[in-house]
Design brief:
The structure is a homodimer. By secondary structure, the first copy, chain A, is an alpha/beta fold. Chain A folds into two domains: 227 residues, NAD(P)-binding Rossmann-like Domain (Rossmann fold), CATH 3.40.50; 78 residues, UDP-galactose 4-epimerase, domain 1 (Alpha-Beta Complex). The first copy, chain A, contains eleven helices and 13 strands. In chain A, helix 1 packs across helix 8 and helix 5 packs parallel to helix 6.
């Protein structure tokens, strides 16, 4: 029996990963930690899922508590998903963002190091680590310089560097990702694509005016479907090389306006777009597109979902929920 | 009247900087914070120096307290010296090292940002940020990639990236240094050169066996005299360009064995060297030498003290103290 500890299990990625483990694997003792119990309104069989795992209510900034939890579980794997993952919110609360990313990670690796466990850990980073990127550097490969340009990105870069030091200096077993923008049902509408999908659902259900509010519509991101992300994390946990960093991405770029257009087509709803200056960030990347070549070569992973497919699931989620 | 806040004022660099300000400038309202009151056994006129400043007892991890201190002072300048600055100790206490570097810095810049002050801040970083360096990259220039290889270096890189984000995203006025190994009288003997100087003084005074214990004697560092460091920090505070990073170094490399030899010559004491494996670090740089060209071009600064000169002062300090 292998044991796995999923931090931030109550979140969007945590819920999808838990459901995936239960659906596709046997012989896993699944533990989750989070500050709050899972609600997971995006999982059909939520109650069954909850009964199949052990949930530990714990703030990852509580070093003593996380030490005890890890001592009790002695996990073979830790999937560290807990994070303060909004770039926009990191500008308004840079200190909270930093603590809840970097210090939370440090508490976990310290618990593993001090207890001498051989746990394989997956540290989830972000495409934001690459910073403002000229077009000639696209698609981004892992060897490119990282230049974090917002508080969230700095925290992610710090975590990645800490991971490298724990691998080389203390012989811990850690793989890292630079994950590009996830999208999928259940994602908070503080993230732009989920917000747009929600606005389309509101137009359909609440007969709102067909106006979509966005920040800068021209920014281009590499949106990767949550189901593809989950498979990538599972693959890296089992087949990744310790100390290595892997992009997790779709390899394709789409602008925010593309998202609006695609959802407009899918829902057959003509809309106008309104720019909300409050959603514009102090410093932002015009374009971020990744290459998943390294991950593919190491593990055979490829993304399986199209943008249309993801947006359809997200629209369906909000349509059901509202 | 200009006001300056020196964090970590009770330390080695803090004491030297305070004495320098009082000796060379007028019209400065000098404030210092530290967890403990200055002892400064390396300053001749310690009591006069203490009476000439305002001391605030404060842990920089106490965000609320540091906010109030900065609110009261409204400093024109902040020289942020407080740090957990030992690489060796960062390997045994990585969490403490990280918190006392990165989070302390964040509390300061947050206090300045949230109160809208136009304070010029100097963030002190380290040559350790460059990582393991091939000989062809020497002397190191600021444009070279940074690859932190120990917990202390990760914290310093994180602080530098945070500083850049606060400059670009919030318009704060921050200059950064990558300071190479300081040496001078009053430095703790947890640092290698001070430890060697102390051992030579012990041989002379306590008639100890002429054996010098060191870690890896072959490692080469760029040792820069404390008086030169102080002048560099003053110069950057007044003439540096916001957002820029400056090496503070001597431009010359010396091995640990060179230090032993030089002190052996200065004190006319033949010694043997004993390697203490406890002093060897998990991952270490064989050679680190910097270029101060950028700082020189920007401000005219050049180092003024030779290695012999520094070692003589350090030996004298330990000789008096023991």
């Amino acid at each position: 029996m292998k044991s796995i500890l999923i931090t931030g299990i109550s979140g969007f990625v945590g819920g999808h990963f838990t459901r995936y483990l239960l659906n596709t694997k046997t012989g896993y003792d699944i533990h989750g930690v989070s500050r709050s119990e899972p609600t997971w309104d995006f999982i059909g069989d939520k109650e069954t899922t909850l009964r199949s795992i052990t949930f530990h209510k714990c703030d990852l900034l509580d070093a003593a508590k996380i030490h005890t939890v890890i001592q009790d579980i002695q996990p073979d794997y830790i999937l560290h998903l807990a994070s303060f993952s909004s770039v926009a919110q990191s500008w308004t609360a840079p200190l909270t963002s930093f603590l809840n990313n970097t210090n939370a990670f440090l508490n976990i690796v310290e618990a593993v190091r001090l207890q001498g466990f051989t746990t394989r850990i997956l540290s989830v980073g972000s495409s934001e680590e690459y910073g403002i990127v000229p077009e000639r550097d696209l698609p981004l490969i892992e060897k490119r310089a990282i230049v974090p340009e917002n508080p969230y990105a700095v925290a992610r870069v710090s975590e990645e560097y800490l991971a490298q030091v724990y691998v080389k200096g203390y012989n811990l077993d850690i793989c890292c990702t630079r994950s590009f923008n996830h999208i999928g049902p259940g994602q908070s509408d503080t993230f732009v694509v989920s917000s747009i999908a929600r606005q389309f659902a509101e137009i359909a259900i609440h007969h709102k005016k067909p106006v979509i509010k966005i920040g800068d519509g021209s920014i281009v991101r590499d949106f990767v479907d949550i189901d593809d992300v989950i498979r990538a994390y599972d693959t890296i946990l089992t087949k990744g090389v310790s100390g290595e960093v892997y992009n997790v991405c779709s390899g394709k770029g789409h602008s925010i306006l593309d998202i609006v257009q695609c959802l407009s087509g899918l829902t057959q709803t003509p809309v106008t777009v309104e720019q909300d200056t409050a959603l514009i960030r102090p410093v932002d990347n015009p374009v971020l597109v990744g290459s998943y070549d390294k991950l593919h070569r190491a593990t055979g992973w490829t993304p399986g979902n199209s943008l249309e497919n993801s947006l359809e699931k997200m629209y369906g989620y909000w349509h059901n929920k509202l």
